[in-house]
Amino acid sequence: MFQLFLMTLSGYKPVSILFPMAGVGAGISHSYVTIFDVKVVITPLHLVGKRSLMLGNDSLFINRIIKIMEFELTLQIAAILFAVALVAGFIDSIAGGGGLLTIPALMWAGLPPTVALGTNKLQACGGSFFASWYFVRKGLVDLKSVKLALICAFIGAALGTVLVQLVDTKVLELMLPFLILAIGCYFLFSKKISEDDKHQVLTPTAFAFTAALGVGLYDGFFGPGTGSFFALAFVSLAGFGLAKATAHAKLLNFSTNIASLIFFALGGKVIWLLGLVMLAGQAIGATLGSRLVVTKGTKIIKPLVVTMSLAMSFKLLATQYQLF
C-alpha cells in the first residue's frame, strides 16, 4: 500500500522526493532512508502533525510536496502547460492532432517519454470527454447507436497497448506519415465531404467490429492521428456528414483514451497532479472547439483537418529522419 501511494503520487520511480519541514525547529537533524528505491525524509513522530504515514517509530511527513522526480512543477510551468492544453483541446475537438503540442510540452517540462505519453493520455481523456459530452447534449451523437462501437474501440485500444510490447513497430512508423498525409488529401479533394449524411457502406454492427475495433487497436498500438482515422471511417463507411463524423470520432477517441490510460496508470506512468492541471485546460479548449463544430461545421473542420494532417506528417517524417 505504501509503495502504491508513492508510485501513484510520482507517476514512476522517482529519483527523490523532498518534503517541507514546516513547523520543525531550526537545528533539528532529519534522517534519510531509501524505501522502494525512493529517497525520503524521515522526521520523528512528535515533530509531525496528523498528516503522516506511520513508519515504525518514525513518520513520513507528507504535508506538501516541494519537488518530485527530476523536474519541479512550478506555478510558471503549470500555467504554460495549462495554456498549451487549452489550445490543444480546441484543435483536438475539431480535427485531432493536439498531441503535437502537449507531448513535446510535457517533455519540455522534464518528463521522460513514456511518462509524457501516460500523462498526456490523462489530459486527453478530459478533452475528449468534454467534447463528447457537448456533442451528445447538442444531439450530434446518439449513444445507443454507438454503444457497440464504443466497446469495440475500448477493446481494440487495450489489445493494441499489449501488442505494442510484443512486436516491432518500425514498419508502421515508416508508413504512418504517408497514411496521415493520405487522410489530409482525402478530406481536401473528396466530394463526399459535406454536412449531409450519405449512403452507409457498413451496418453499425459491422462498423463496430471492423473500423472501431481496428482504429482502437491502432490507437493503443501507436496513436498519432487516431481522431482523423475515426472521422475518415465515419465519413466513408458510416456515411456521416463531417460534423456528425467528428462528433462520433471524439466519442470513440474518449473510449480508446480511457483504455490506454488504465494501462499507463497501472504501469506507474501517469503524473496525476500535472495531468489534472492540463485536463482543466483541455476541458475549456475542447468545449470551445466543439461549439465551432456545431455552428460552423465543414467550414472549420475541413481546413483544420487538412492542416493538422500535414503538420502530423511533417512531424513524423522529421522525427524519423532527424531533421531537427
Automatic annotation (TrEMBL):
GO terms for cellular component: plasma membrane. It comes from the Bacteria. Keywords: Cell membrane, Membrane, Transmembrane, Transmembrane helix, Transport. The chain crosses the membrane at residues 73-95, 115-136, 148-166, 172-189, 227-246, 258-280, 300-318. It is a multi-pass membrane protein. It is found in: Cell membrane. Belongs to the 4-toluene sulfonate uptake permease (TSUP) (TC 2.A.102) family. This is Probable membrane transporter protein. It comes from Shewanella morhuae.
